[in-house]
Amino acid sequence: MPTRDRMSQKASAPLEKAVKLAVEFCIKKDILIDYFKQNSSEEVSMNFIKYDERIAIKVAREEGMEKGIERGKKEVQNYILDLIDQGLSGEEIKKKIKGLSKKNPA
Questions:
Q1: pLDDT digits (tens, 9 = 90+) for 40-71
Q2: Of the candidates 64, 36, 47, which has an alpha carbon nearest to the alpha carbon of residue 12?
C-alpha cells in the first residue's frame, strides 16, 4: 500500500513539471528574470506546491462551512414548517426555537 508521502509526491509531480516549464518560459521571455535567477526552479516549484496545498485546504474548509450553513438553514426551515403544520402559533414556535438554542449553545 502506498504511503501518504508517496501519494503526495505522485500527485505533485505534474504540478512540479508545469511549474518548471513556466519558469523556463518566463526566463526565455525575460519575465521576473531577477527572481528566477535568485531561485532555482526546484525552489520555485516547491513554493508553488506548498502554497497550493494551503489554498486547497482553506478552500475545502470554506466550502465545508458553506455546505454546513446551508444544511442548517434547511433543517431549521423544515423544523419551522413542521411546527406550523402542527398548528403552533408564532409565539409557541419562538419558544420552541429559543428552547433549542438553550439546549445546544453555540
A1: 666 666 666 666 677 778 888 999 999 999 99
A2: 47
How many structural domains are present in the chain? Answer: 1
CA angle 19, 33, 50 (to 5 degrees): 35
What the block records as the C-alpha cell of 16 is 512540479
Closest C-alpha to 72, from 91, 102, 97: 97
| In the predicted structure, residue 4 carries a pLDDT above the cut 50 | no
69-77 long-range contacts, CB within 8 A, separation 24+: none
Amino acid at 23: V
Which structural domain, as residue segments, surrounds residue 25? 4-103
Residue 40 is given by DSSP the state -
CA distance readout (Å), 22 to 50, 63, 74: 17, 30, 45
Instruction: Say if residue 11's pLDDT is above 90.
Output: no
